[in-house]
Amino acid sequence: MPEASGQEKTEPATPKKRQDARKKGQVAQSREISSAMILIVSLGFFYFAGSWMFWNLSEIISGIYQNINSLRFANIGDASAFSLKVSYKLMSVLLPFLVPIVIAGCFANIFQVGFQITPEAMTPKLSKLNPISGMKRLVSLKALVELAKSIVKILIIGSVAYLLVKSDMQDFPALSHQEVGQILVFIARVSLKVCFFVCLAMVILAVLDFLYQRWQHDEDLKMTKQEVRDEQKQTFGDPQVKARIRSVQLEMAKRRMMEAVPEADVVITNPTHLAIALKFDAEEMIAPRVLAKGAGYVAQRIREIAEENQIPIVEEKPLAQALYKMVELGEYIPAELYRAVAEVLAYVYRLKGMYGQT
Length: 358
Description:
Number of strands: 4
Strand order of the largest sheet: 3-2-1-4
Order of helices and strands: HHHHHHHHHEEEHEHH
Mean pLDDT: 82
Oligomer: single chain
Structural class: mainly alpha
Strand content: 5-15%
Shape: elongated
Low-confidence stretches: 1-6
Number of helices: 12
Radius of gyration: 39 Å
């Protein structure tokens, strides 16, 4: 059975699998989000600045037609100058409309997947030119789903537009008795109403499609149990990775150990090569506990921290060696060392004027 052999893709994608897929440009992305965003920005522009754009374009076009008979170009330079003048005027009208649309499209993509540049995804692949592979993509389940979504979108948007136009159809016969300006106002009002509800429908469809794309992306990235095991083996089985992990763990443990030294009651040394920091609280501990220990440079650092925090340092070579060999970090001292450690603590308490509390 496939599941028994570990070939069924039942495991969620690991962070590494997701990162590798992202590098290849495989991300959860809905084109409907971009379409809805562009449509909303376009509608907003026409609502607030549509009349400005309409009258400016009308002025440019009417200016060309009114002077079409008087246009005489003596040479190619005059024709180029006239073309540039018209082009500049057109761009001055169209750019305020086109720039927000481009920004909206970019924002929609960044909103979904963040800012990323994927050279691997942009690299041309000859395999994509294979007609057999192309036919397989056309008849794949994913292509059929996309076709079904497109049909549903057309039906929904078409139905919304039809119902809205139908609600104003009783006013159409009266337009024949209206002036051109009134007809244009009526058409603009109906168009804006249709566009508004189409935008609303597009937003709803975009949200649903985005959720579907996220789910489909997670399904596509699922792994078999064997793939998960292979990835873990590849990641954590590398000797360099293991060494790096051990180094980081040791560094973190050493840092925590050094942070605990100021809480110690005494530091026992041998006197230069070993240092062991002990703490004892009769109300909370059953015996003195080792907060920090080390040899060489670590021992030197423990002594320095003890001196900075005015913690007594006692030179007791046999006891220091026994504690270093027998007791691990964070453990209580064994019973055979109780007497020796008690004598040291009693000495420390006497130094602090606390002999009566021992």
